[in-house]
Design goal:
Number of helices: 10
Radius of gyration: 22 Å
Strand order of the largest sheet: 1-2-4-3-5-6-7-8
CATH topology of the largest domain: Rossmann fold
Number of strands: 8
CATH class of the largest domain: Alpha Beta
């Protein structure tokens, strides 16, 4: 084999390798990432108390259905009938158990409590995950379930990570909540894909994140802008407490500050728990966390219980 033949063979081999690399990077990886986002059934092992009995919370089992037919299961405690009801919304790959200690504390303070599993989590029905877009339907279904059990009592949403994002998106879809506690929410579906792509794989947003978002939206049949939490905050008129972990690389305090500025409601606050990583603000400093939440809710509770007009008080 002469030198010219070897050179042509090397060039063709390099072109073939480059084409294979681009195919994997621009086709295989985005498709695989899209399926990983929507089809996973993985769930983290829960920590802390695992049953209502372990935290002294008396509950009855409840089951209701999301607007697209997904069965949802949870626990209900009515609390003091003169107090608001708090709907707790857990994070991605978690379950209602993540919010169990917070729910028990709320119950001891007299609040009604609904803890439930989002679609494709815990004991609720199997479905695709959409990082808050379809999960917001579950939050609205939970609100309707509370309305059936507690009438016109004020409702408060309290969510962590994807649960916080789902709560804010739900407040746009089914308005009327008295307040929201948003712990470690993301900015938007697009931003979350882009940020995690860079954080985990050091890959650029363009064009890979754009491809993942486009493929996922086509597969699931949704507009990715329906997952724009920051835009939803601008449109709802609800008191919101934003919580962030000082050491959270996934949803850093800067994002919470940005969402705080997006809110047009006069009753809004930002709580940053130093040293807390993503979704761990509660476990990092429970006393400061809970005191801050209930001090904030104390600012809105009077108006919240007095009326439940669309958009909150």
């Amino acid at each position: 084999m002469n030198r010219a033949t070897v050179k042509r063979w090397l060039i063709r081999s390099m072109i073939a390798i480059a084409c294979l690399f681009l195919f994997i990077l621009l086709v295989v990886f985005p498709v695989a990432a899209s399926f990983l986002i929507t089809n996973g059934r993985f769930q983290y092992r829960e920590r802390g108390p695992l049953t209502p009995e372990a935290v002294g919370l008396a509950v009855t089992n409840v089951e209701f259905t999301s607007s697209d037919g997904i069965p949802l299961r949870g626990w209900w405690n009515p609390g003091d009938p003169t107090m608001p009801v708090i709907i707790f919304v857990h994070g991605l790959n978690r379950s209602r158990i993540e919010m169990l200690e917070r729910g028990a504390d709320a119950s001891r303070r007299g609040y009604g409590v609904l803890l439930f599993d989002l679609r494709n989590h815990g004991e609720s029905g199997k479905a695709y995950k959409t990082i808050g877009i379809f999960e917001s339907r579950d939050v609205c279904a939970a609100s309707m379930a509370v309305r059936e059990k507690a009438g016109l009592r004020a409702q408060i949403l309290w969510g962590v990570s994807m649960g916080a994002s789902s709560a804010i998106l739900a407040a746009k879809q089914c308005p009327g909540f008295a307040a929201i506690v948003s712990d470690s929410s993301f900015l938007s579906f697009r931003d979350t894909v882009s940020h995690h792509l860079n954080l985990l794989f050091r890959l650029p947003s363009f064009p890979i994140a754009n491809l993942i978002v486009a493929i996922t939206s086509m597969r699931m049949g949704f507009d990715p802008d329906d997952g724009d939490v920051e835009a939803a905050i601008r449109k709802i008129h609800v008191p919101i407490l934003f919580i962030a972990g000082g050491a959270d690389r996934r949803m850093p305090p800067e994002l919470a500050e940005r969402m705080l500025q997006a809110s047009g409601h006069p009753v809004k606050e930002l709580l940053v728990i130093p040293g807390a990583v993503h979704g761990e603000a509660f476990r990092t400093d429970k006393e400061k966390y809970l005191n801050s939440v209930y001090r904030f809710l104390g600012r809105v509770r009077y108006n919240a219980t007095a009326s439940r007009q669309p958009g909150g008080s």
